[in-house]
Amino acid sequence: MFLKIVDVVSSLGLDEKTVLGWIKKKGLPAHQVNGRYQINQVDLLEWATDNGITIPPQMFAVPDSEDKLPLLSGALVRGGINFDVPGDDLQSALRSVVERLPLPEHMDQDFLFQTLLAREALGSTAIGHGIAIPHVRNPILSQAQDPAVSLCFLRKPIDFHALDDKPVHILFTLITPNVKVHLHMLARLSYMLHEQRFMELLNSTPGTDEIIAMVTELEDRIRR
Asked: For residue 125, which of 183, 72, 168 has the smallest C-alpha distance?
């Protein structure tokens, strides 16, 4: 789905000049149709996440009557939380992450690894504060009905060329059945990563149950 400038301005409570500045000076992807900018929802959310800008999850919500979207907490359980993941540099860390992803049988692991590396060459997926969300230009799609979000805590911090120059030690990777669910999962994850309590938990020594419990709690807040 494409958004007009007025849609973004209205939803985020900004002025048009700010959004145009994002497009012209900060690399927000946009297309001109009949002289007017249009912004793809996926592009907006991924750009905002990469640039540390909070996007309200409600902006991408689908009414329950139209679609029953999955929970981030359930996707995290399916994707798995991995601790002490090895890696001496960006390349070896991404290799370790891919090896732990619950990929469908038809998906080539090495191809995905090379694609993630190519994406990092275009621009870092680190969002600051020691966190990165490595992803390909298009969502990692799976034929399975249920999405999975993998969380990996690296054994040692790795330089991901983050804008804040902080090394990365936490990686989230998404596997989704379609673009709509990818958008939904990324919106929920972006919301969580702007919650101070969640960030403090991630940077402590959390257990799997603690992480899932807090994600469930925060997600319940969104849904109310």
From this structure: 168
Q: Are 166 and 177 a contacting pair, CB within 8 Å?
A: no
Structural domains in the chain plus CATH codes = 2-53 (1.10.1660.10), 72-223 (3.40.930.10)
Amino acid at 137: R
What burial class does residue 221 get, using C-beta atoms within 10 Å of its C-beta: 0-12 exposed, 13-18 middle, 19+ buried? exposed
- Tell me how long the chain is: 224
Q: Digits of tens for pLDDT over the chain (224 positions)?
A: 678 888 888 777 788 888 888 888 888 888 887 778 888 777 787 788 777 777 766 665 544 433 578 899 999 999 999 999 999 999 999 999 999 998 877 778 898 899 889 888 888 889 889 999 987 766 666 666 688 899 999 999 999 998 889 999 999 998 888 878 888 888 889 889 989 999 999 999 899 999 999 999 999 887 66
Lookup result for tokens 């139209």: 66
Q: CB-based burial of residue 72 (10 Å sphere; 0-12 exposed, 13-18 middle, 19+ buried)?
A: buried
Q: How many CB atoms lie within 10 A of CB 93?
A: 26
- Hey, which residues are catalytic here? 135
Token pair for 24:
């012209």
